Amino acid sequence: MVAAGLALAACQDAGVPKHMKPLPAKIKAKMEQLNMDAKAPIYIRSFKETSEFEVWKQRRDGTYGLLKTYSICKWSGKLGPKIKEGDRQAPEGFYTVRPGQMNPNSSYYLSFDIGFPNAFDQSLGRYGTNLMVHGACSSAGCYSMTDDSAGEIYWLARDSFIGGQRSFEVHLYPFRMTAENMARHRNDPNMPFWQMLKDGSDHFEVTRKPPVVGVCDKRYVFNVNTGSKLNASAACPADMRVPEMLEAAVKQKQARDQQIFVATAAKLDGQDQVAAAKAAADVAARQASADAAAVAASPAAFANPVVAEGNAASLAIGGVPAPDMPIPVPSPVRMSMEPAQVPPAAEKKPGFWDKFKRRQPS
């Protein structure tokens, strides 16, 4: 009977368009377990670095609980925002999906457009089209899932619209916005942008509700109250405020995170210095080994030249004087003692004729 029932269900599903298929019974059971209505609003966030795609759903108390985490089958590019058409970058940021962005006739099983570029992207001149969450496990800037995962995500979004949700948020992060991860990526040029994303993530972590996202002064703002309409490219209104209790809670979390960030960054800097010193030592050791091998292979090429004594030209490099340098000459020999004294001649004794001459009158 069970087998017959499964076969009947399969036959019934075979005639149902894929975008109209019901959610699996297992997910429905988990919703009930988590105190969620089947058609309650949803909220999505994803993380490139770990290829995780989370679907959160509103509980009956108004907060959101994690319903299921899917594996992203493929995303293209690298960590960082999408800038322009053709850069093959999967976007990062805060996006809104409305019923008109759902595509039941997608060439990639089922899909929905995430809404890139949003007001923030447009204020910075970023552009691109057809950035989707879809099936088929193939990406050129999209977040691609398996067909099974894309189907479940599509059906969850469909049911939330049927239940009255007018739009749902899709928040796309480079990685989980923890203090430790921020420290790991502290030297990345995208850090100022990611700090904005972390601010939005912090609002969700504190409230367990998707933050209300706005854009002014070419930056994201969250859960702000203002009597003026926000303009993405203009200065933020002077009366813009975050509710006091919420702001205090977010700042308290961020102060704790900052302490962890500083400690983690210092530790990582120390590890980087040790790694750099080791790398330099390894390079020196490899060079010394290569030099020793070269000497062993051709000892004659490295022998010291023999300098011939008395040959001034041989004192130059290779027996040839260096350009513009005189040939060296031997230094004069210094005197090491006084010259020998010549003894005076001995006095000659007078002979007979000498004596005779002295006696003669002058």
Provide tags for this entry.
alpha+beta; five-stranded mixed beta sheet; 8 helices; 35% helix; 14% strand
Q: Kindly state the number of beta strands.
A: 12
Secondary-structure element order, N to C? HHEEEEEEEHEEHEHHEEHH
Beta-strand share of residues: 5-15%
Shape: elongated
Structure in words:
35% of the residues lie in helices and 14% in strands. The protein contains 8 helices and 12 strands. It has helices at residues 2-14, 25-33, 119-123, 147-162, 179-184, 191-207, 244-297, 352-359; strands at residues 42-47, 52-58, 64-71, 74-75, 93-97, 102-103, 111-113, 132-134, 143-144, 168-173, 213-216, 219-222. It has a 5-stranded mixed sheet, covered by helices on one side. It has a 5-stranded mixed sheet with strand order 4-9-8-7-6. Strands 11-12 form a two-stranded antiparallel ribbon. Helix 6 (191-207) packs across helix 7 (244-297). The N and C termini lie far apart (180 Å).
Q: How would you summarize the topology of this molecule?
A:
Blueprint: H1 2-14, H2 25-33, E1 42-47, E2 52-58, E3 64-71, E4 74-75, E5 93-97, E6 102-103, E7 111-113, H3 119-123, E8 132-134, E9 143-144, H4 147-162, E10 168-173, H5 179-184, H6 191-207, E11 213-216, E12 219-222, H7 244-297, H8 352-359
Parallel strand pairs: 1-10, 8-9
Antiparallel strand pairs: 1-2, 2-3, 4-9, 5-10, 6-7, 7-8, 11-12
Helix pairs in contact: 6-7
